[in-house]
Specification:
By secondary structure, the chain is of the alpha/beta class. It is about 45% helix and about 10% strand. Bound molecules: coproporphyrinogen III (CP3).
């Protein structure tokens, strides 16, 4: 730890001018002026890249998340290729749950599949608390990456309690989240016990990443949009708040993201986020009205737009930058993850376009 002249305590290496803490990405998260709008893509490290597919051809997904040299290489691939303003750690939201003792796999083309779904109080007890010793590969990979990345910030992440609970209760991906909601409505006490335990695991997992040196964290509540605002506030918000407020003193910006969350944007901000992720359904100026002036926004190009001809992509990027100017801070991103069929060259062009258009604006003051 170092103390600068203003008495602010900062992590070593983080506070030097030009370091990650002074990068456009972290500055935008903190609603400070930026030389250009920063851009990264959810799921940027993954199947849209041939160099990723080559590495993964012979290594199962969970194993690749547990090999620090592979995590480091895959995390760096999109930074090298696209020149994005931030890296996101290559991992998966179920990695800490597996480390907590739950038998699961990530099945290609399907997603996480849980051997014995969580349905009873005894099942909840099977989720053990985790410490750094349970995820040494994450600690090691983050430390390596911070060195390799230099001034480029690294984003750590975890799944939020609701989205994790959905995989655990359903046993796999679900369109309706019917079993999850049945448990939530039918046995609120058990539901809260499950989510409290998942919040503990998530908080511990994010703390490991922060102690190892990530510059920001993103809490993915991808499936929270399945709930009404009232149910979100009653069944989910207290647990996501436990995670995000538990990181309040960690000095790294906290991003909170979900899909289909137009009605939840205000509540998701209240959970303790510095930045609220917005999917493509809500224009960023409307989202900013809902979230309020004390938070930045992240988003929100429809990932499917990247499959359209370039003039369509360009027009959408321009629109999003324009609408993002109404927010006190804007991190350009997609409204959800990169689709595997995306042409990586289009992603590279989007990064260049976002930088070019937004730095022209910055020059004009
Ligand atoms: O670049 C990055 O964003 C970092 C890596 C990352 C992965 N998963 C790698 C991955 C991140 C941030 C995640 C988060 C994640 N995982 C979420 C939240 C984000 C979101 O998309 O909503 C969720 C819901 C999961 C669960 C999960 N894991 C799904 C739905 C899938 C896809 C299933 C499929 O094959 O279509 C996975 C597998 C997964 N996670 C892959 C990758 C690169 C694909 C594995 C492969 O290459 O076969």
């Amino acid at each position: 730890m170092t103390t600068d002249t203003t008495g602010t305590v900062a992590r070593d290496g983080d506070s030097r001018p030009g370091g990650p803490a002074d990068s456009p990405f972290i500055r935008a998260c903190r609603r400070r002026p930026v030389p250009h709008t920063p851009v990264w893509f959810m799921r940027q490290a993954g199947r849209s890249l041939p160099e990723y597919r080559e590495i993964r051809a012979s290594v199962p997904m969970l194993e690749s998340c547990r090999r620090p040299e592979l995590v480091t290489e895959i995390t760096l691939q999109p930074v090298r290729r696209h020149g994005v303003d931030a890296a996101i750690l290559f991992s998966d939201i179920v990695v800490p749950v597996a480390a907590a003792g739950i038998d699961l796999d990530i099945v290609p083309g399907t997603g996480p599949v849980v051997a014995e779904p969580i349905r009873t109080a005894a099942d909840v007890q099977r989720i053990r608390p985790i410490t750094r010793e349970d995820v040494p590969y994450v600690d090691e990979a983050v430390r390596q990456l911070v060195v390799e990345l230099g001034d480029t910030p690294l984003i750590g992440f975890a799944g939020a309690p609701f989205t994790l609970a959905s995989y655990l209760v359903e046993g796999g991906p679900s369109r309706t989240h019917a079993k999850t909601k049945a448990l939530m409505y039918g046995d609120p006490e058990l539901w809260h016990a499950l989510c409290a335990r998942l919040a503990d695991v998530t908080l511990a997992f994010l703390r490991v990443q922060i102690e190892a040196g990530v510059s920001a964290v993103q809490l993915f509540d991808s499936w929270a949009g399945a709930l009404s605002e009232a149910d979100y506030r009653r069944f989910v918000l207290p647990h996501s708040t436990a995670v995000l407020s538990g990181l309040a003193h960690a000095e790294v910006p906290r991003i909170h993201f979900g899909v289909g969350t137009a009605e939840l944007l205000g509540a998701m901000g209240e959970a303790g986020a510095d930045v609220v992720g917005v999917d493509w359904r809500t224009p960023l100026d409307v989202a900013t009205d809902r979230i309020g002036p004390d938070k930045a926004v992240q988003g929100n190009l429809d990932p499917c737009v990247l499959l359209a001809p370039w003039p369509v992509v360009e027009a959408e990027v321009r629109r999003i930058l324009e609408q993002g100017r109404t927010a006190p801070g804007h991190v350009f991103n997609l409204g959800h993850g990169v689709l595997p069929e995306t042409d990586p060259d289009v992603l590279t062009r989007v990064v260049a376009l976002v930088h070019e258009l937004s730095s022209r604006r910055a020059d004009q003051g």
